[in-house]
Amino acid sequence: MAAQSIEQFAASIRVPVDRLLRQLQEAGVGVRAAGDSITDDEKAALLGHLRRAHGAEASETSPTPRKITLTRQVVSELRQPAVARRPGPGAAPAVAANKVTVVTRKRRTYVKREDQERVGEETAAESDTVTPVEQPAPESELIVQAPEPVVEPAPVAEPEQPAVAQATSAAEAPPRRTTEPQPAARPQPQAPRQAPGKPPARGAQPAPRRDEPGRGAGKQRKKGGRDERGGFGDDAQGRLRSRSRPGAHRGAGAGAGRHQFERPQGAITREVEVPASITVAELASRMSVKAAEVIKCLMRMGQMATINQALDQDTAMLVVEEMGHTAAVAAPQSPESLLTELAPTGEGTARAPIVTVMGHVDHGKTTLLDYIRKSQVAAGEAGAITQHIGAYHVTTPRGAVTFLDTPGHAAFSAMRARGAALTDIVILVVAADDGVMPQTIEAVQHAKAAGVPLVVAVNKMDKPDAEPDRVKQELIQHDVIAEDFGGEVQFVPVSAKTGAGIDALLEAVLLQAEVMELKAVTEGPAVGVVVEAKLDRGRGPVATVLVQAGTLRRGDMVLAGGEFGRARVLLDEHAQPLLEAGPSRPVEVLGLSGVPNVGDVFNVVEDERKAREIALFRQQAAREASLSRREAVPGGDIFSQLRAAQIKSLNVIIKADVQGSAEAIASSLLGLATDEVTVRVVASGVGGITETDVNLALSTGALLVGFNVRADATARKLLKETGVEVRYHSIIYEVIDEVKRALGGLLEPEIRETILGLAEVREVFHSAKFGAVAGCIVSDGVVRRRCPIRVLRGNVVIYEGELESLRRHKDDVPEVRAGTECGIAVKQYNDVQVGDQIECFERTSVERTL
Ligand SMILES: Nc1nc2c(ncn2[C@@H]2O[C@H](COP(=O)(O)OP(=O)(O)OP(=O)(O)O)[C@@H](O)[C@H]2O)c(=O)[nH]1
């Protein structure tokens, strides 16, 4: 090699000149200038120094190598049976000998023991002994090459890089030598693949170097190719390695001087977040316990559960606390939060009051509203009672008012409560001829609970027996005090029939609204409440919504409870199309995906995607809640389960024209439950009776109730075929009576006892055939042979049984009437005495009704 200057040498090995000069000085070569030339001996001296300094072995300057890797390669050949090709006519058969070359390479590494111990600790302890260290498994690889033999150059253990350059690199970075893959960061020299996050390398074989010549590099590429195609190479390697992995792990752990897993010394208390509904399995997983533990805990609490059973939040939290953890209510991770920013904000402007008309049945609510609206709603109602909530916006000369017409029947209690919560003012209609009645009081309570002011309309003033002062006095007891009695409530005498006083009533309402300064934001996406919903045969789902803030426009994307859709059509109370509806405006919306529930909040959302996401989330939440409710009944405590098993239930499916009626009927029917019988509403919905309803009724043995709806053609056919019972009604009382009668049929009949007669024992004889025979005289009624008897002594029953014989003058007789003597033998009873009484009675079963 030509003489090289220090500067050139530094450039060739890519180290700064001054650093090279310093290292040369440390190696004893002596300080010289950058321009001086450096000899090969000096380079060798520098290399030796650097190897010593960095613990390198296998150098000519280090007589005791610290690690030796032996690689052995065995090449063998396999001959596959010759394949005889079909010879051509007259040709000799050609034989192709398939020769497969198998190259097996084995590698075994020996490391000084103290070097192994030193890994990770950096404590140098020199030792002269070389001890073979057992490797996890001799590294071997099998390369099969076919069909022709491959001339395999021996793998090159040492790189071709100049020794000095390598030594210099070693001084700068952790050594990456083929024979010594032992950087401190690696837990074991033989297992560089253990480095986290790195793709596993092939055994202890160091990573192939780019400059590695010949077959080694080619083979590596080949392996890489296999990996890319389907990971075969890695997988096969992984299986090979998996046998040695535990050892390698332990080695790594020991090498690092610490355990990866520490056994907990005491119980771990976890904070467990519990959502509204959670399965037993999920709860167990959150507490890091087995599901069986949770089931056991539930059993201790008196509840039987299965691993997939959904628990409600309260039960789940109890289980968590019971098992020694801390329960926390999980924040609902719902897309509902997306809605928060949708609420319209800004300065509110005056809006029309929302007024609910409440009162006892037939006190004239609908007639009053009818007069105000100048329409004939009352005339069109079946049974002449209002059966679903209606919302009407009326413009009077004194201003606009939105009316919610709520039914007065007790069945609609829930609906009325909802009306009071929505409303600004309640008009309490009390018939002057009838006075305060139960539902008048209920209406007062609802209004008070909702903090809504009352205006009392004393109706039917045209009737001769009208007593308005009586109404005022009766209402004082319920804390509703008229202005002229020193209170704050306006009482307006009216006649819904003649229209007298209606103007004054509206004035009173608008005055009250003025005092309340009702305001709402008109700009922005609309927010409101669904006040009625139904499935219309021609128009699909129709929801009556009351806008509370913002403006609902035609074409808006509306989200109502678990349903959504574009508001294709907006209609007012006169079925006239609207382009938009502002606050306090009731409007019918067409275009929803389904029938929402009455009372659901509706929002206008930006796009369909968001609406769909929230709607699906709500549907899922509703399903889960209903599931956990349904499971809560049989899953309750064992005693109540046993009790429940004895209660007979009548299954009912309700189909109604509007959601409010279906809901009201369901709640009324559920209210019929007693200790012995109950109603189970299998399903309730809006729309005509379909094939699905009939099939459901068939499978559950339910009674189908159609309220203002009929079965379609397919369902009718199926009804005929299956004999499923269906009842059509348009008056709610009739539905209740019908179901009451059916429930009565489920009641066990009552067993009534009737005393038929009494006989007094005058003498006792002994007969060989019957034992003691009582000689009696029938003092009252009749004694019949086939009826049960009781023996009374001193008016106390001492025996109950049957007659064995009833005789008169030695003749068996069927009955003996009062004043007649007879002989009575009691079956299996011989203790009869003179003075006893024998009572004859009969049991009859009586049908019961609810
Ligand atoms: N004489 C007289 N009859 C009235 C008056 N208001 C209502 N009525 C009658 O009272 C009956 C009941 O009236 P509705 O308006 O249906 O009573 P309601 O309170 O709406 O009844 P529900 O819908 O069942 O809650 C009807 O026959 C009306 O004609 C009135 O001011 N004077």
Automatic annotation (TrEMBL):
Residues 350-519 form the Tr-type G domain. SUPFAM superfamilies: Initiation factor IF2/eIF5b, domain 3, P-loop containing nucleoside triphosphate hydrolases, Putative DNA-binding domain, Translation proteins. Residues 111-121, 225-238 have a biased composition (Basic and acidic residues). Residues 111-265 are annotated as: Disordered. It comes from the Bacteria. One of its GO terms (molecular function) is GTPase activity. GTP binds at residues 359-366, 405-409, 459-462. Keywords: Cytoplasm, GTP-binding, Initiation factor, Nucleotide-binding, Protein biosynthesis. It is found in: Cytoplasm. One of the essential components for the initiation of protein synthesis. Protects formylmethionyl-tRNA from spontaneous hydrolysis and promotes its binding to the 30S ribosomal subunits. Also involved in the hydrolysis of GTP during the formation of the 70S ribosomal complex. HAMAP family: IF_2_B (MF_00100_B). Belongs to the TRAFAC class translation factor GTPase superfamily. Classic translation factor GTPase family. IF-2 subfamily. This is Translation initiation factor IF-2.
